[in-house]
Specification:
By secondary structure, the chain is of the alpha/beta class. It has 10 helices and 14 strands. The relative contact order is 0.14.
Length: about 300
């Protein structure tokens, strides 16, 4: 059984993956920027190039999720630089440690995002589709380039371009659900932009497959088989929560006034394919939006 090291293990997705791998019998360690006297939690500071010397001991797989959140703060020039630097510094630091230190790591799994593709309206996008040149796309490209370097060390690298992860523990779903619960749910922007999403259980299973399946390598889209438009997403969410959806869409210019450049993350969509995952033998538990939301809210009832 592999021993997993998660960089970014204290974040929303990191906590889910840590609990999931532990439930499957894996030994899980976490890299934390906070010094904590706990077993299997190791301190590190990529900016200062410092890491506990025991962090790699017995590790065969690293999952790299480390990076500042893209939401919560306006995208000022300084904030955008922080977002990019936090991803590149942590990934480059892991690469240097793997290059210079003795270890048993044979698998490196890194996160990226479907923001890599930019806005393409209703065009289907797969792993071979070209990137855009907006901020999110540039950030993802730099992050993926840093992660890909690890393959030069003879380590198998898998990169997941994550869609919106549906969970009540964090991410976008609670933020979308709040106005719906308050009878103020409405589409954002045109409402026609596609949302590529994945149920948290399927995401965890996909990471498990990547950790165990040596035939998986390079880039995969971590999304469900059925992306939906923003309008359909909000409507399905309203139906699940038994709330009406009667308000008109929130205009893009209003979102731009409130969020600034960050509004592009919700007004520009991507219709992303997961065909490569299915061809690799992955089976989705929640391929449809209505099933996914019913399951999530049933667990919370």
């Amino acid at each position: 059984m592999k021993k997993i090291l998660i960089a970014g293990g204290s974040g929303f997705i990191g906590k889910m993956l840590s609990e999931y791998f532990l439930s499957k019998g894996f030994d899980v360690a976490i890299l934390s920027r906070e010094k904590r006297d706990e077993k299997n939690i190791f301190s590190w500071d990529p900016q200062k190039e410092e890491m506990d010397e025991n962090a790699f001991r017995g590790i065969s797989c690293i999952i790299n999720l480390s990076g500042a959140s893209i939401s919560g703060k306006r995208w000022t020039r300084k904030r955008k630089q922080e977002i990019v630097n936090s991803r590149m510094q942590s990934t480059d630091f892991l690469y240097e440690k793997l290059r210079t230190e003795k270890h048993e790591v044979d698998t490196f799994i890194s996160a990226s995002g479907v923001g890599y593709y930019g806005s393409h309206k209703d065009e289907w996008l797969d792993e071979t589709s070209l990137p855009s040149y907006d901020f999110l796309s540039t950030c993802c490209r730099y992050w993926e380039e840093s992660a890909s370097k690890v393959s030069s060390l003879g380590i198998r690298v898998v990169i997941f371009r994550l869609g919106i992860v549906l969970s009540l523990r964090g991410g976008a779903l609670p933020e979308f659900a709040l106005p719906v619960k308050l009878f103020a749910g409405s589409p954002l922007g045109s409402g026609k932009q596609f949302i590529s999403w994945i149920h948290h259980a399927d995401l965890c299973s996909l990471f498990l497959k990547a950790a165990e399946d040596k035939n998986m390598h390079e880039i995969y889209n971590a999304v469900s088989p059925e992306p939906v438009t923003n309008r359909v997403f909000v409507k399905t969410l309203a139906q699940t929560l038994k709330r009406p959806m009667f308000l008109p869409p929130v205009p893009s210019f209003v979102l731009n006034l409130i969020l600034g450049e960050m509004a592009s993350a919700v007004t520009q969509g991507q219709r992303v394919s997961c065909k490569k995952n299915i061809e690799a033998g992955f089976k989705y538990q929640f391929p449809q939006m209505n099933e996914a939301l019913k399951n999530i809210y049933a667990q919370n009832s």
